[in-house]
Design goal:
about 140 residues; mainly alpha
Length: about 140
Amino acid sequence: MNGQRTESRPLQQLARDPRLEMLEAALPYIGNGFQQPLAMYIKAQELGHVRERFQDPDTVSACGLSHSNQSLEQMLRAMRGKADDETRPQIDQMLHIIQISKVLPLLLQNQASPTGSDAGASTPPGQEALMSQLLDMMKANR
């Protein structure tokens, strides 16, 4: 790869500047007294690039930062991949809540239907499957 970094994270794509990458590569070879100021300069410049590039909607979209067609569930799954061992179970709980919130309205709708309120009627079609899904999700959350 000729020493090139390939960044797939959106903010790194926005901040990318080959000149700054060269300066960053030089950091270990610079005297201790200049490493911190140079590192801060590099990060400040990257921050400026991000600020500038967020002004162009096409650039934001090209880096995958456009929020269209995104969901809370997708965001949590992306965050889960970067989470530490302590945070991952909390994200899992949030994902389970989202899954339950998708099934629960269907379950309630089936219960409210006229066939579900008949005293002598058997379980409405599909309700057993929904209950089973709900129970499976709850068991997986333990």
